[in-house]
Amino acid sequence: MINTLILGVVSATAVTGIALVVGYLASRRLVPGHQALPILAMAPIAVPGIVMGVGLFLVYTRPPFLLYGTLWILIVAFVTLEMPAGFQQVQTALRGLHVELEEASRIFGATRLQALWQITAPLLRTTIIATWSIVFIGVMRELSAAIVLFTSQTKVISVLIYDLNESGDLAAISVLGISMLLITFAVVLA
Fold it and tell me: Comparing C-alpha atoms, which of 86, 85, 76 is closest to residue 55?
């Protein structure tokens, strides 16, 4: 349970932050090659989770990046797999915010960061919360990559439920399933 909660919070926060930066840079066309940013952010949707898990296993079990056996490899996998969902949420919200709002504040002397903090951020508050919640819930139930990348110290709820299903322990599965449901309901309600 602890591993799942840690992975959910860290992955949701990372995806939301990265999606905000990438979405803002792409929608406001602030960097050269901004056309490629949405393509890169959406690319993981084309890769099945099990293939992503095997690829990460092959990459991160050899030096110089020995992440296998740690929560870091699961964080990398979950952030990669959930990035398209987070990016789509943020991109849609940013398209609804007109650039003129930021430009008007800059005309009155605000810097780009002040305009972001005082104009754009408050308007994106609900999108940020919704994106975080959607990614958190997606990480809580992710099985395909986790089943390839977990170890005994990094087991998550979805893998535990899968293992218990193989052994036929329906009572434990029910308890874990209800626990997951309560956690996701609490996140959505909050």
Answer: 76
Longest dimension (CA), the chain: 66
DSSP 44-87: GGGS-HHHHHHHHHHHTTSTT---TTSHHHHHHHHHHHHHHHHH
Say yes or no to pLDDT of 7 above 90. yes
CA-to-CA distance for 104 and 92, rounded, in angstroms?
A: 22
Decide if 68 contacts 57 (C-beta within 8 A). Answer: yes
- Mean pLDDT value of segment 75-97: 93
For 35-58, letters b (16+ CB in 10 Å) and e give eebbeebeebeeeebeebbeebbe
Omega cis (within 30) before 64 = yes
pTM reported for the whole predicted model: 0.89
**What whole-number distance in Å separates Cα of residue 27 and Cα of residue 32?**
12
**3-class SS at 32?**
coil
Q: Are 188 and 96 in contact (CB under 8 A)?
A: no
Calculate the CA 84 to chain-centre distance. Answer: 8
11: CB partners within 8 A, 6+ apart: 75, 78, 79, 82, 135, 136, 139
Whether the CA torsion 105, 106, 109, 110 is positive or negative: it is: positive
According to DSSP, residue 151 is labeled: -
Instruction: Indicate if the pLDDT at residue 113 is higher than 90.
Output: no
